[in-house]
């Protein structure tokens, strides 16, 4: 069965690029080489960041559409899908880095999880850099381009971390509370389990057993940290995968229902319409 959408690594998404763990370029240069590829719905195996300095258009991240404006910055994590719909005047900076890029550099391998824009939730990943921070952000990105050109990759790592801290400080939500590390770990493990088992495990109590906690504890944790129940997180992941599969014209709705382990096509269609407001066939038509 062919995949719903193409999934690119750093080298395959950018024509002629050879460094498999890092890409840092000006947007105008990047688009000249890869315009057609990035304007189609696709997935990433890497972390992705763009800062727009000028231009307009729109982009979709996991099927949510956002208007593009100058001084907007957005992040994506591996596994997310998106497409661009830019006007010709767009410019800025593009950075890709692999999951392995910081692995031997940081003692805490989960360090990036502390940043809200690496949550995998598109609503937390698209921000506008305030006027007072734009000069600092631009200066950091220029340094990253310079150090990348000189293949000084440890310096790039330091500058990227400085950039992440700057963005979190200037764009973070007001009143964001500090989350204890143990709670972060449980939530991250739950989300990883969902990504691994969402086709076969549908109930929060089954995930709670895998995490060695009670269903009530899991549900309270999700509501406290994300404002959603554990069941809603599982449902959202199933719906996201259904949407990704619906982009594949070679798969029927019946095949998608079977892939997602629904009892039958009608049950899947009712489930999809209940939470999306339209049927799977209507969603597919709207993609055109």
Describe the protein's architecture and organization:
It comes from Chitinophaga lutea. Keywords: DNA-binding, Transcription, Transcription regulation. Pfam families: AraC_binding, HTH_18. InterPro entries: AraC-bd, Homeodomain-like_sf, HTH-like, HTH_AraC, Tscrpt_reg_AraC-type_HTH. GO terms for molecular function: DNA-binding transcription factor activity; sequence-specific DNA binding. The chain is an alpha+beta fold. It has 2 domains: 165 residues, Regulatory protein AraC (Jelly Rolls, Sandwich); 106 residues, Orthogonal Bundle (Arc Repressor Mutant, subunit A), CATH 1.10.10. The protein has 11 helices and 10 strands. A hairpin with a 2-residue loop joins strand 5 and strand 6. Helix 3 packs antiparallel against helix 4, helix 6 packs across helix 7 and helix 9 crosses helix 10. The longest helix is centred in the middle third of the chain and has 19 residues. It is globular, with a radius of gyration of 20 Å. 24% of the residues are buried.
Secondary-structure blueprint of this entry?
Blueprint: E1 7-8, H1 10-13, E2 22-26, H2 27-38, E3 42-44, E4 47-54, E5 57-61, E6 64-68, E7 72-76, E8 81-86, E9 91-97, E10 126-128, H3 131-149, H4 153-171, H5 181-197, H6 204-211, H7 215-226, H8 230-246, H9 253-259, H10 265-276, H11 280-286
Parallel strand pairs: 1-3
Antiparallel strand pairs: 2-9, 3-8, 4-7, 4-9, 5-6, 5-8, 7-10
Helix pairs in contact: 3-4, 6-7, 9-10
């Amino acid at each position: 069965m062919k995949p719903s959408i193409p999934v690119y690594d750093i080298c395959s998404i950018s024509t002629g690029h050879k460094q498999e763990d890092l890409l840092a370029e000006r947007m105008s240069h990047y688009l000249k080489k890869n315009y057609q590829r990035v304007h189609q719905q696709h997935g990433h195996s890497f972390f992705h960041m763009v800062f727009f300095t000028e231009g307009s258009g729109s982009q979709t991240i996991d099927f949510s559409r956002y208007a593009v404006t100058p001084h907007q910055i957005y992040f994506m994590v591996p596994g997310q899908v998106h497409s661009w719909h830019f006007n010709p005047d767009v410019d800025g900076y593009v950075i890709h880095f692999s999951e392995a890029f910081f692995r031997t550099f940081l003692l805490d391998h989960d360090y990036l999880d502390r940043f809200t824009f690496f949550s995998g939730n598109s609503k937390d990943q698209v921000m506008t850099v305030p006027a007072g921070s734009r000069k600092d952000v631009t200066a950091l990105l220029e340094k990253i381009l310079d150090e990348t050109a000189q293949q000084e990759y440890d310096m790039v790592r330091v500058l990227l971390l400085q950039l992440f801290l700057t963005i979190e400080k200037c764009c973070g939500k007001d009143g964001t509370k500090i989350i204890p590390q143990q709670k972060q770990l449980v939530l991250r493990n739950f989300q990883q389990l969902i990504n691994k088992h969402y086709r076969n495990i549908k109930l929060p109590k089954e995930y709670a057993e895998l995490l060695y906690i009670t269903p009530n504890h899991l549900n309270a944790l999700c509501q406290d940290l994300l404002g959603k129940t554990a069941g809603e997180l599982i449902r959202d992941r199933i719906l996201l995968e259904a949407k990704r599969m619906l982009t594949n014209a070679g798969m029927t709705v019946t095949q998608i229902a079977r892939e997602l382990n629904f009892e039958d096509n009608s049950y899947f269609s009712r489930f999809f319409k209940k939470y999306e407001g339209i049927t799977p066939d209507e969603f597919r038509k709207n993609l055109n």
